[in-house]
Amino acid sequence: MHVDEALASRRSVRAFTDEPVKQATVEHILEIASRAPSGTNCQPWKIYVAAGAVKQAISDDVLALRTSGREQPRSEYVYSPKNIGEPYLTRRRTVGWDLYGLLDIKKGDRERTFAQHNRNFTFFDAPVGLFFFVERHMERGAWLDLGMLLQGVMSAARGQSLHTCPQVAWSNYHAIVRQHLGVPNTELLVCGMSLGVEDTHAVENSLRTAREPVANFAQFAGF
User: Fold this and answer.
1) Does residue 82 belong to any structural domain of this protein?
2) Which tens digits make up the pLDDT trace of 25-56?
3) In DSSP terms, which residues pair with 116 in a beta bridge?
């Protein structure tokens, strides 16, 4: 797949088939993605990959906690500011309205909204779940490096005709993930990711998010 096609066809897929993905394929994706740049070549990322019974056990424990009525855990870092402002607030709301519109989830329908949010924690039925960590003592530069790696993983997955969904929602359940995968407390969970074959019959996968034209976010000088 041409790099342009891989980048342009990447999107957040929210329904996968049960077609398995071989460990060798995941290893290949991670090997290609590991060519991502990092400051002084520190390569500060840590990745844990779950499938089969291990992945299912993580999902089961998170869903049990979410439906228990007990206080929900929280991420160890803040992803978005409380007052995010415009145009970011409108963009965030629009993607939510568009997705829920496709699923016919009406505003105020808490039961179906909760059920749809729970889909995050089944990896949208994908056969593989990935978790991305950085060591706690690292500064913002390591997070930038990880972001470049994440893009590489998602693009390399397209090269294998697979799709992904990056999921910051998993950061709220770092303790459960840590317990099942033996992650040391020196590492901080940044996000999860679903990986698999897209379910092309699922209506939610027809969602196409808008992108701003280059003229709206870039300035050029000296050309």
Assistant:
1) no
2) 999 999 999 999 999 999 999 999 999 999 99
3) none
